[in-house]
Backbone:
């Protein structure tokens, strides 16, 4: 797409665990409508025609390949980086962020809690060793998520709308561009 075209509406792949919600299709439609309010064309992971196949692994491969295609089609990725089933973002979302980065696409993420990891995990850190209760060190760079996400992404405190607002502002000011 040519960003100098007056009809240019950047496409944004909406990475996140919302696909696991029981009302995922409805949630995706609402998320895409919100994208449109900010001048973006939302792409939700369910925006592909994948039907269950007789072999579950074949279905998984089709979903994977479909999501990769959707990320490739998008101008940028906006990811829900909130914890999913634990204290870290959804693994699929993290993969999609890495893929987008490798493809040279801008990354945005949103988090409800943007305190640094060490502060957020303080209740699980041994005060003597400084290690997490699992015995592992905790990244302490003042970042809200692992540095491999926080460094390449613009991480916004809040929800999807907050991140869309930031992306729209960045687009208007030239901080966000597509080449």
Residues:
């Amino acid at each position: 797409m040519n960003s100098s075209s007056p009809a240019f509406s950047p496409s944004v792949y909406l990475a996140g665990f919302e696909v696991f919600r029981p009302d995922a299709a409805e949630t995706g439609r609402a998320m895409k409508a919100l994208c449109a309010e900010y001048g973006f064309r939302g792409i939700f992971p369910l925006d592909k025609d994948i039907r269950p196949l007789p072999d579950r692994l074949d279905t998984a491969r089709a979903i994977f390949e479909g999501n990769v295609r959707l990320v490739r089609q998008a101008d940028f990725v906006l990811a829900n980086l909130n914890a999913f089933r634990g204290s870290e973002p959804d693994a699929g979302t993290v993969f999609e962020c890495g893929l987008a980065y490798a493809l040279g696409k801008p990354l945005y993420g949103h988090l409800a809690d943007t305190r640094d990891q060490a502060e957020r995990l303080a209740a699980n850190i041994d005060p003597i060793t400084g290690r997490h209760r699992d015995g592992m060190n905790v990244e302490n760079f003042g970042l809200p998520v692992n540095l491999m996400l926080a460094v390449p992404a613009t991480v916004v405190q809040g929800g999807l709308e907050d991140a869309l607002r930031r992306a729209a502002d960045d687009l208007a000011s030239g901080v966000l561009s597509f080449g």
About this structure: Residues 1-5 have pLDDT under 50 and may be disordered. The chain has one domain: 11-173. The radius of gyration is 18 Å.
